[in-house]
Amino acid sequence: MAERERRHVRVAVIGSGFGGLGAAVRLRREGITDFVILERAGAVGGTWRDNTYPGCACDVPSHLYSFSFAPNPEWPRNFSGQPHIRAYLERIADTFGLREHLRFHAEVLGMRWDAQALHWEVETADGQLTADVVVSATGPLSDPKIPAIPGLDTFPGTVAHSARWDHDTDLRGKRVAMIGTGASAIQIVPALQPDVARLTLFQRTPPWVLPRADRRITAAEQWLHSTFPATRAARRGLLWGIREMQVSAFTKRPDQLGLVEFLARKHLKKAVKDPGLRAALTPGYRIGCKRILLSNTYYPALARPNVDVVTAGLKEVRGSTLVAADGTEAEADAIVFGTGFHVTDMPIARRVTGAHGTTLAEEWKDGMAALRGATAAGFPNFLTIIGPNTGLGNSSMILMIEAQLNYLADYLRQLDVLGGKIALDARPSAVQQWNHTIQERMTRTVWSRGGCDSWYLDANGRNTTVWPGTTSGFKKATLQVDLAEYEVLRPPAGPPADRTAPPRTEVAA
Ligand SMILES: Cc1cc2nc3c(=O)[nH]c(=O)nc-3n(C[C@H](O)[C@H](O)[C@H](O)COP(=O)(O)OP(=O)(O)OC[C@H]3O[C@@H](n4cnc5c(N)ncnc54)[C@H](O)[C@@H]3O)c2cc1C
Asked: Are residues 324 and 183 in the same domain?
């Protein structure tokens, strides 16, 4: 094995989005420099590197959708666009000296826990390494999902997913079919509508859409924020506080959301005068059950004469003819799938083989479950950032990521305190207890009771993605590692067993 292939690191971080870069900064803050960041792509940024579709922007205000330890007084808008967020993450990599740790084109293909050596053997597209601890920050929305539509291969035009935009294809003057009505689709539709000949939206379920309080952040505000940091902190605090106050309506009292529905209906009525179209765009489930979307331009775009809304999903493709589930047909030159990601079937889970020789995906065959959103029984020293039940419906994921970084830091401290070659393995009872409590709380939430089917739910109808509480509640629950929830593993006595078996490799299709 070449020198590089034998490299051992204390920590291997997988992914270089907000999660991976945040973990790396935290490691450095803890004085740990013996780590690598393994990234399958050729640049940092994750979500904000991959999503370059027209109109792509965050839907949580930028002053909250950014790291607390790296404020950016220069955010140009309330809801900044993808280029600005990507540039912010590039700056994080520079400012915190992360470049030397980055390994690009190093997709993690397989990992296996070595119970004798108490470390992970990691196989990447760029060689092998071993690591005491692995932090998986591969992202909840990073592997695009395109449904298996019969006849799709007969389509003669361009087929793209929102997260893999084809910038070589000029859609101006073309007939474009947009499949899906999620957060990306509602940004793409108004961005494309003015330039295309015809836009056909295939809508299985209409989303609830609220106005978007977007505006330019003035030079005076930017000056204020950089000169008096307390003003920036106050702005962030206000954005956070408002969202914290909304949580109980989502998690305990969905009946309180009626007023929000009223506002959303008003928003629709103002933009769409045609009662038929308005009826087609009115959701039949409680607001909040699916992610609430924010847009001032989506409804006006749908009301334009070059747009058709088909109120059924795409069922079949016959050459350039797209056939909906209700039999409606539409001709198209290009198809854009805004159909989401592999969320409840995280691809990395198929590549991680734990202490009992099974993969995380096998362990999770009945649904994802982790202790405090981070660790799984039988997978020692393996922590997930944005793991099961850490997603949010109404606030910034960066708050959850930072809470998980506290947990990661304390986890590493505990390993140091315990001393020597050591690993922590979550006790099955602790994982079970944590998830039992979550699922119990879930029964009262709008995601369970709101009358919709959403990507928050897995194939068994269980919500394994969203955190049913406030971000401060999650922060409190993840501030410290409770050692009683873990089994402490030390190297076994006696001669080492055969450790020649290579890590299991699973390459995504
Ligand atoms: C269009 C869009 C808009 C969004 N807007 C918001 C918003 O406004 N507010 C909000 O809170 N959240 C938003 N999100 C959610 C967003 O995903 C999170 O906020 C956050 O960016 C996730 O960061 P991450 O680092 O966990 O994952 P990602 O940003 O997805 O990064 C994961 C990284 O891991 C890499 N990777 C994956 N698998 C492997 C592997 N096997 N080996 C090596 N590298 C691997 C990927 O290439 C990627 O770089 C949005 C998501 C999308 C898609």
From this structure: yes
